[in-house]
Structure formats: structure tokens, C-alpha cells
């Protein structure tokens, strides 16, 4: 019945169909009971239309205001609304009946407020039970779908975070260094092994400490230094208070990878990447800057698969509690990530 933004299209399809079916049945019963089709039509069109409007309004109010309320309060509000709605519809039905003559073959007494009250109380209670039943079922399905989507995003994350070119280029570099600089080849092989172990073998963990993330970045930078040579350098400024904070796996390497890609210069022009991590009260701040110029307004979804994937995972872990921005400062591009509090998705 519900979606993240409100009532689903399914509700608005079922709601009028249900009340039309109820109206058809009610018209037949009233025609037989009062022996006056005109009275039956007046009662059905007036009362069932109000019932449709009232239950639709109740559903909209439930979506808007009952999300964070306790279930007991919601239940009490639903019972109260059903009783009051049945009472008002019963009174209105009695007033309408007084305007019409009873048929000669009528089997109902003229004063039937109690019967109308009981009838609509039953209708409204059944509607409420059906609504909450479908809503609960849909909530379960939505939660399962969200979990499946989260697992899928994590799989995509693992598939994207280590490019084959990185591995192949590093292996070729190791091969070239073995004969002339075996110590450097051994160091490079160790960096690649450590980086791949961290990137791929997390045993289902989705959160890592800043200290682990910085270690992975150092291995990544070591590999890139071999490929780019002395023209590339990276400086770290990491607050010790931030080392124990947890982040989604491969957050910092993703930011640095994007910075290296964006900061590379043509030819042998040198370029420098700077990584800063610090705590501001309970907010973890990360800043990565590199040479480069923004082509327009920053949008993570259009900044390439690395930042797009990272932004989606951050939204899962820190809903409404993070910001990922990029701005131009002179001839350098600065990417900032701020996360508030602890991750809410593990």
C-alpha cells in the first residue's frame, strides 16, 4: 500500500474498486430493505462516497504523520476514527431516510440508527484491518528488496573497485624490475598483494576503520608511483583521533583513485595529491585535493562510476547525515566528504 514517497498506485486502484463493489452490494440490500430504490440510491451515493473520501484521507494522514508514532497510538487513533466515522454516517443515514417515504413492502423499521452504525463500523474496521495488513506485508517486501539492493550494490562495489588494468600494469612493472631492481620488485609485489587482500577479501565486512583505509591508500599510492614515476607524489595529514572511526569499505581509496585520475597531467608534468582526515566534534571530515578543473556543477552520479558507487553506499550508511562535494580552488580540485555520527547500515 505504501511507497517511500506515499501511497502506492496499487492503493489508488484498489480503493475505488472496493468502495464501488461495496456500494453495489449496499444499494441492493437497501433497495430490498426499504422498498424504495430512490432512497437506496441516495443513501448509497452519499454515505459510500463519504466513506471513500474519509478512508482515503485517513490513509494519507497515516502516511504523513504516523511513520514515527508508536503502534499503540496508531491503533487507538484508528479505532477512534472508525467509531466516529460510523457514528456520523449513521446519523447522516437516519437524516436522509427521514426525507423519503418508506415503501409498502419495507422490512426495515424507520428508525435504524443502530443498524447503520453497526454496518458502517464493520465496514470501516474491515477496511482498516485490510489496509494495515497489506501495509505490513508491503513493508516486509520493501525491507527484503532494500536488503537485496544493498547486497547488489556491495557486489557492484567489489566488481568496480579493482580494475584489471591496475593489476596487469603492476604485474608488468614487477616483471620489468625483477632483473635490475629485485628489492623494488619485491616491494611492489607486496603492495599489490596487500591492496588486493584488503580490497577483495573483507569476509562480508562492509565497514572498516580509517586506519585500515589509510593503509590501503598507501599501497595504492605506492603502486601508482611505480606507474607514474617521480612526477607523482601524495601527502597525508591524518588526525590520530580519526583513526578508529569506521567508514564504508574502500571509501578513502575511492576518493584518492578519483583524485589520481583527475590530477594526471599530460607528458611528464608533475602533480601532487593531498589527503587530509580529521575530526570536527562528532563529524568525520575528509578532504582530497588534486590538480584539475571542474567542468561544471559537481554531481556524484555523473562524476564516474567510482564516486557514483561511493555516493550510493554512503547514502545507505549515513542517510541524511553526510555530504560529498567538490569545488574549485585556484588550479586545484578539492573533494570533501563529511559524515555525521556512526554508520546506520552494516
TrEMBL record:
InterPro entries: Bact_2-comp_sensor_kinase, Sig_transdc_His_kin_internal. The keyword Hydrolase does not apply. Keywords: Kinase, Membrane, Transferase, Transmembrane, Transmembrane helix. It comes from the Bacteria. The chain crosses the membrane at residues 12-33, 39-61, 73-96, 116-134. Residues 154-232 form the Signal transduction histidine kinase internal region domain. The keyword rRNA processing does not apply. Its EC number is 2.7.3.-. This is Transmembrane sensor histidine kinase transcription regulator protein. It comes from Bordetella ansorpii. The gene is ypdA.
Amino acid at each position: 500500500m505504501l511507497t517511500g514517497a506515499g501511497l502506492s498506485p496499487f492503493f489508488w486502484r484498489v480503493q475505488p474498486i472496493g468502495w464501488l463493489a461495496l456500494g453495489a452490494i449496499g444499494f441492493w440490500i437497501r433497495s430490498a430493505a426499504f422498498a424504495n430504490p430512490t432512497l437506496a440510491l441516495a443513501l448509497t451515493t452519499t454515505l459510500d462516497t463519504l466513506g471513500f473520501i474519509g478512508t482515503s484521507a485517513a490513509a494519507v494522514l497515516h502516511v504523513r504523520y504516523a511513520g514515527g508514532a508508536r503502534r499503540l497510538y496508531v491503533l487507538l487513533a484508528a479505532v477512534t476514527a472508525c467509531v466516529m466515522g460510523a457514528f456520523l454516517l449513521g446519523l447522516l443515514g437516519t437524516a436522509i431516510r427521514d426525507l423519503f417515504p418508506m415503501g409498502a413492502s419495507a422490512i426495515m423499521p424507520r428508525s435504524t440508527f443502530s443498524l447503520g452504525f453497526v454496518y458502517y463500523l464493520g465496514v470501516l474496521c474491515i477496511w482498516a484491518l485490510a489496509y494495515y495488513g497489506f501495509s505490513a506485508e508491503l513493508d516486509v517486501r520493501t525491507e527484503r528488496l532494500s536488503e537485496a539492493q544493498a547486497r547488489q550494490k556491495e557486489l557492484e562495489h567489489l566488481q568496480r573497485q579493482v580494475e584489471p588494468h591496475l593489476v596487469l600494469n603492476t604485474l608488468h612493472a614487477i616483471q620489468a624490475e625483477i632483473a635490475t631492481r629485485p628489492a623494488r620488485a619485491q616491494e611492489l609485489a607486496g603492495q599489490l598483494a596487500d591492496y588486493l587482500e584488503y580490497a577483495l577479501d573483507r569476509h562480508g565486512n562492509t565497514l572498516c576503520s580509517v586506519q585500515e583505509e589509510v593503509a590501503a591508500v598507501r599501497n595504492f599510492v605506492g603502486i601508482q608511483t611505480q606507474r607514474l614515476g617521480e612526477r607523482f607524489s601524495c601527502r597525508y595529514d591524518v588526525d590520530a583521533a580519526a583513526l578508529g572511526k569506521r567508514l564504508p569499505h574502500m571509501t578513502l581509496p575511492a576518493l584518492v583513485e578519483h583524485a589520481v585520475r583527475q590530477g594526471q597531467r599530460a607528458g611528464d608534468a608533475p602533480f601532487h595529491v593531498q589527503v587530509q582526515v580529521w575530526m570536527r566534534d562528532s563529524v568525520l571530515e575528509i578532504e582530497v585535493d588534486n590538480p584539475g578543473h571542474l567542468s561544471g556543477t559537481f554531481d556524484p552520479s555523473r562524476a564516474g562510476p567510482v564516486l557514483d558507487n561511493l555516493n550510493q553506499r554512503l547514502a545507505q550508511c549515513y542517510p541524511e547525515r553526510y555530504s560529498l562535494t567538490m569545488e574549485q580552488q585556484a588550479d586545484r580540485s578539492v573533494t570533501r566528504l563529511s559524515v555525521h555520527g556512526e554508520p546506520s547500515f552494516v
